[in-house]
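User: Sequence recovery, please. Input:
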């Protein structure tokens, strides 16, 4: 089945910002994808093309990216077989001709790449996750542990909390469906605790469905989570993940970190500006006192030295995950493997721009013995592509926000449906699959 035409249009994401929907048309019908977008973005990510026209959407329109799909990518890919993913992705990279996809826009390219994969899975008569597993050469089909972002700080919230995300990680659940239930129950317990301590207004939710009460320290957030977990009876099965997104409060010139960076007034706490060494001591202390599963982006996106130090010190106990440091970029991943900078990869398909490169990044992580956490973006749609991606790659862990807001739940609900399909196939013909559980960091 070959591509007949490709059409893109401008739509809005969950934050009300423009993004793309891409349709790939074939003789068998139309197959579409919707493109996510991040708020906290690394400088090494592939280039998201925005119009810059301040008279529309404050310059955030994507009509140029839409035009690139309709007038450049579509005629170039016409006639190519949809089941030749690598050739199609390589063709778009060649057509773009830049190192970071800045000519066509990674948001244009990734939408086409995702839609093509859906078309190919359809003609083969298999679910998307099965097709992705074939592309990756992965025979280990398994359901991931979900990581629920339930307390927000950093760029995702208006409070003074520097660290960006605090997540529930139900590694002790017996299956995905129960993991989702555990997360939902703790989320609602947390809501009641926050309402009692900070007032009803503090239970308003942020971009990813998490709460943003008026907190100033990570220890306050962690204590809230421990209380909610204990109140729900899951103290032995749920751990906590922390995404510091430290690039947002890192000064690369001074190599210091400002834990009060959102407070620019006269009340700014000067003693909140600390060295990387002191920040690492803070992480080590947190690990001693709380049930931590992982630290993500604990230091700035080019602070290779301190990432390496913390991985050396506590990396045998928990995951140290690189997001802004790595940006799903195979070259940066290779460097991190060589220098033992982190021990896990955060995988975002729109960070690198094609499914082929995303699979390559995941395979590099696997070969190095790393973990791999598949991730959404803060600006999302109801497209649940990453649910199939995480199952197809078998990475064992996914984060898609809180168990709240439909654009987040679309991924979790898709994963429940996949689990049902796999259970049915297992009963019918013995096909094996598993829930990652406590082995979530190995794949």
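Assistant: Recovered sequence (443 residues):
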């Amino acid at each position: 089945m070959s591509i007949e035409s490709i059409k893109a249009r401008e739509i809005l994401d969950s934050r009300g910002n423009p993004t793309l929907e891409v349709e790939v048309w074939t003789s068998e019908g139309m197959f579409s994808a919707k493109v996510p977008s991040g708020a906290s973005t690394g400088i090494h990510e592939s280039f998201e093309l925005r119009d810059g026209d301040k008279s529309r959407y404050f310059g955030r329109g994507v009509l140029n990216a839409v035009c690139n799909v309709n007038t450049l990518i579509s005629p170039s890919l016409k006639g190519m077989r949809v089941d030749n993913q690598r050739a199609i992705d390589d063709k778009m990279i060649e057509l773009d001709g830049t190192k970071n996809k800045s000519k066509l826009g990674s948001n244009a390219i990734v939408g086409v790449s995702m839609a093509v994969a859906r078309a190919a899975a359809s003609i083969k008569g298999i679910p998307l996750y099965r097709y992705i597993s074939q592309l990756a050469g992965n025979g280990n089909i398994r359901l991931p542990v979900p990581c629920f972002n339930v307390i927000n700080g950093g760029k995702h919230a208006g409070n003074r909390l520097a660290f960006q995300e605090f997540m529930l990680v139900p590694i002790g659940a017996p299956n995905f469906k129960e993991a989702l239930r555990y997360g939902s129950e703790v989320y609602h317990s947390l809501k009641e605790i926050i309402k009692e301590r900070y007032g009803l207004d503090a239970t308003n939710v942020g971009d990813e469905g998490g709460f943003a009460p008026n907190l100033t320290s990570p220890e306050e957030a962690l204590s809230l989570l421990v209380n909610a977990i204990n109140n729900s009876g899951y103290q032995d099965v749920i751990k906590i993940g922390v995404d510091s997104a430290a690039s947002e409060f890192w000064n690369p010139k001074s190599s210091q970190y400002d834990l009060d960076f959102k407070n620019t007034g006269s009340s700014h706490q000067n003693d909140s500006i600390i060295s990387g060494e002191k920040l690492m001591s803070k992480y080590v202390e947190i690990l001693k006192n709380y049930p931590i599963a992982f630290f993500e982006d604990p230091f700035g996106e080019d602070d290779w030295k301190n990432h390496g130090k913390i991985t050396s010190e506590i990396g045998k106990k928990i995951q140290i995950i690189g997001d802004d440091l790595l940006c799903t970029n195979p070259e940066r991943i290779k460097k991190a493997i060589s220098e033992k900078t982190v021990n896990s990869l955060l995988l975002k398909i729109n960070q690198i721009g094609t499914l082929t490169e995303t699979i390559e990044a995941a395979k590099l992580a696997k070969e190095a013995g790393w973990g791999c956490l598949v991730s959404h973006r803060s600006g999302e749609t109801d497209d649940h592509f990453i649910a199939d991606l995480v199952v197809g790659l078998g990475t064992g862990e996914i984060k898609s926000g809180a168990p709240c807001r439909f654009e987040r739940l679309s991924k979790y609900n898709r994963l429940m449906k996949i689990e049902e399909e796999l259970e049915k196939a297992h009963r019918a013909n013995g096909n094996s699959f598993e829930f990652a559980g406590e082995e979530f960091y190995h794949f």
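The radius of gyration is 21 Å.
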